[in-house]
UniProtKB/TrEMBL annotation:
Signal peptide: none annotated. PANTHER family: APOSPORY-ASSOCIATED PROTEIN C-RELATED, GLUCOSE-6-PHOSPHATE 1-EPIMERASE. SUPFAM superfamilies: Galactose mutarotase-like. GO terms for biological process: carbohydrate metabolic process. GO terms for molecular function: carbohydrate binding; isomerase activity. InterPro entries: Aldose_1/G6P_1-epimerase, Gal_mutarotase_sf_dom, GH-type_carb-bd, LacX. This is Aldose 1-epimerase.
Length: 287
């Protein structure tokens, strides 16, 4: 089941499953990956974990929980339509007995898409702690942007020049205190198969507040504006595919030296009872 929303020059489409954005058309041109070959997703929400759990488990208050899926479970859950206005659509996911078997917290998760003007949308997450104690979670964006021509025509541009040090993935996890230098004092990442030959490239979140996906041969450009102090920003593109993902994260896949304790997990967010955590990014699409 899906919902369409048209406003100004923008049309978006959202699935009920995962409240997932799978189309953003501006003046008749598609900017989001269709979720077909190479990867069956388009823009999944990463909650309550980013990446994987080492040995498929974690420990909270002395009890062990098992969860073998990558990026949590929200992306595979059926959300309910919460609100639909002229230019905004919102979905909600509530904790239940099923979620509490693998994640022992009471929560309300709201995901909204707002068309701001003729070529931009705002994607917003709200996490409500509805339980009687603090809750711990990670949260991430994973939107795949369509590259309609040869992927080598595109590059990523950051909003400042810096030391580009990748936090490499060892299998599905991260080795402690290991970083690989990609470039010194640069704001450009060429989109090549070699850049992504070892899966995603992950940077500390202070690397940039904006990423642009630029076509060298036309005026087509996507800007991903993430002004918040995210813990990490990742980029991912499967070999041979016609899309690239820009992923601001609160949290990261487990480090290989993890003690499995949820409270000490790298990048974990602690939210007190009755509090709300809000995060958003803005996508600007230019033809």
């Amino acid at each position: 089941m899906e919902e369409n929303l048209r406003y100004a020059n923008v049309e978006i489409k959202v699935r009920k499953k995962g409240a997932e954005l799978f189309s953003a058309i501006v003046d008749g041109e598609e900017f989001i990956w269709n979720g077909k070959e190479h990867w069956a997703k388009s823009s999944p929400i990463l909650f309550p974990f980013v990446g994987g759990l080492l040995d498929g488990k974690y420990i909270y208050k002395g009890k062990e929980y098992s969860l073998n899926t990558r990026h949590g479970f929200a992306r595979d859950k059926e959300f309910e339509l919460l609100e639909k206005t002229e230019n905004k659509i919102s979905y909600v996911l509530l904790s239940n007995e099923e979620t509490k078997k693998v994640y022992p917290f009471d929560f309300k998760l709201v995901l909204s898409y707002e068309i701001l003007n003729e070529n931009s949308i705002k994607m917003e997450y709200k996490v409500y702690n509805t339980g009687k104690e603090e809750m711990y979670f990670s949260l991430g964006y994973h939107t795949a942007f369509f590259l309609p021509t040869n992927f080598e025509n595109y590059y990523l541009k950051l909003d400042k020049k810096t030391k580009l040090e990748n936090i490499p993935i060892d299998g599905a996890f991260v080795s402690p205190n290991v970083k690989n230098l990609i470039k010194e004092n640069s704001d450009i990442l060429e989109i090549t198969d070699k850049l992504f030959e070892n899966d995603a490239i992950i940077f500390d979140g202070n690397i940039s507040n904006k990423t642009e996906i630029i076509d060298k041969n036309s005026t087509r450009k996507v800007s991903v504006i993430h002004n918040e102090p995210f813990d990490y920003v990742a980029y991912w593109r499967p070999q041979g595919s016609q899309f690239v993902c820009v992923e601001p994260w609160y949290g990261i896949t487990d480090f290989t030296d993890t003690d499995h304790k949820l409270e000490t997990k790298k990048g974990i967010v602690k939210l007190e009872k009755d509090k709300t955590f809000t995060s958003s990014v803005v996508y600007i699409f230019e033809k």
